[in-house]
Amino acid sequence: QVQLVESGGGLVQTGGSLSLSCAASGRTSRMLRMGWFRQAPGKEREFVAAISWNVGITFYADSVKGRFTISRDKAKNTEYLQMNSLVPEDTAVYFCAAGDKSYTTDYYYNHGAYNYWGQGTQVTVSS
Asked: Mean pLDDT of all residues in the chain?
């Protein structure tokens, strides 16, 4: 089992920045990827970004490409999401996720590639 604890988030104005962190504990040696998903009220959970744990290859949703940066610190078992140029459409609950099953990278965009989830943290962008 892997436990995930998110931190960061909050309220920011349009154009502002926020940083999220997600610390993993437990059987972290088996992690193959970590990612971020978000869910806005009345909408389905959607992919935001992912990173392959061992090599560090990154993947982004088109809606955040160029504005968000995902990174990880293997020594701390922590992933980060730096969010810049935020817009109201980024308002959502952001969930950290981790996966330890082997999939091709095209599946990284799917929530099914992740079997561990954090509790979520609210990000609100005001106009």
From this structure: 97
